[in-house]
Amino acid sequence: MTVEYIRYRIPEDRSADFEAAYARAAGPLAGSPYCVDYELTRCEEEPASYILRITWTSVRDHLEGFRSSEQFREFFAEIRPYVEQIEEMRHYAPTAVRGTGASTGASVPTLYEWAGGAEAMRRLTEAFYVHVRKDELLAPMFAGMSPDHAPHVAIWLGEVFGGPAEYTEQHGGYPAMLSHHLGKAISEPQRRRWVSLLTDAADEAELPADPEFRSAFAAYIEWGTRLAVANSQPGAEPPSRAPVPRWGWGVAPPYVPGKD
After folding, report:
1. How do residues 86-95 score in pLDDT, each as one tens digit?
2. Strand 86-92 and strand 49-56: pairing?
3. Residue in 69, 58, 66 with CA at minimum distance from that of residue 175
4. Do the Cβ atoms of 2 and 62 come closer than 8 Å?
5. What residues contact residue 85 under an 8 Å CB cut-off, 6+ apart?
6. Is the pTM of this model over 0.90?
7. Are 82 and 21 in contact (CB under 8 A)?
8. What is the pLDDT of residue 70?
9. Is 105's pLDDT higher than 50?
């Protein structure tokens, strides 16, 4: 993973058009399989100064993958008038120094915390794989499943939902999870059954049933399983390097009675 920073100096009379151009350019940028996330910020002390931050799966994916794609041509068509205003454009490698502040953590719990942490993820995957072993569609895919499979999936889900980065640090991160799906040719009926059984398992494991949590939970399951299907097809060439996704509440944060 690499982070690209592009620093612009935009005159006040062009700032509105500049932001509008990037709002349009965000469509093809977000559609690139090499783009992890992006953010355009404006300096409060010096409003003419802007910084665009883009996280790419790798420098090579950015320079060779994205820049040779149709998404780049659409993206560049929007921002071309502002290229001369670029003051810096470089890639930076993340370091081990990272974290969250007390304000964010204290105000809104992660999905992992709200669900009940590692124990809740363990209950979820144990209940799920009991059903998988008996299911006519999914059992053949998991024949000979390692005893460590369910615990590892629990660790993956824990990290995805905002828990410790244990899957990244101890189990190979995104590349390892991707390797489990390549060439499997997962079908749409199998995907739908997977979603259905995991939803049932969430009930059996007594995960929170509030609409806000279940909406976020279902959103990740839909997104993740559809990505797994696409990545598992013959000839698929998904990006080989990417961070483990971090899933949040989305539109609806947790509902706490008595709070506005």
Report:
1. 999 999 998 8
2. unpaired
3. 58
4. yes
5. 8, 9, 10
6. no
7. yes
8. 94
9. no
Q: Please check whether residue 165 is in contact with residue 172, taking contact to mean a CB–CB distance below 8 angstroms.
A: no
pLDDT score of 242: 80
Distance CA 186, CA 74 (A): 32
Calpha distance 209→205 (Å, rounded): 11
Segment 119-149, tens digit of pLDDT: 999 999 999 999 999 999 999 988 878 888 9
Token pair 């002390």 is found at 45
Q: For the residues of the chain, what is the DSSP string, one character each?
A: -EEEEEEEE--GGGHHHHHHHHHHHHHHHHT-TTEEEEEEEE-SSSTTEEEEEEEES-HHIIIIIGGGSHHHHHHHHHHGGGGGGEEEEEEE---S-----HHHHHHS--HHHHHTHHHHHHHHHHHHHHHHHH-TTTGGGGTT--TTHHHHHHHHHHHHTT---HHHHHS-HHHHHHHTTTT----HHHHHHHHHHHHHHHHHTT----HHHHHHHHHHHHHHHHHHHHHHSTT----S--PPP----TT-PPP-TT--
142, 190 Cβ separation under 8 angstroms: no
Q: In whole angstroms, what is the distance from residue 3 CA to residue 53 CA?
A: 7
Q: How many C-beta neighbours within 10 Å does residue 234 have? A: 8
d(Cα 200, Cα 38) in Å, to the nearest integer?
A: 35
Tell me the angle at which helices 188-204 and 117-134 cross, rounded to the nearest 10 degrees: 130
**pLDDT tens digits, 52-95:** 999 999 999 999 999 999 999 999 999 999 999 999 999 999 88
The one-letter amino acid at 137: L
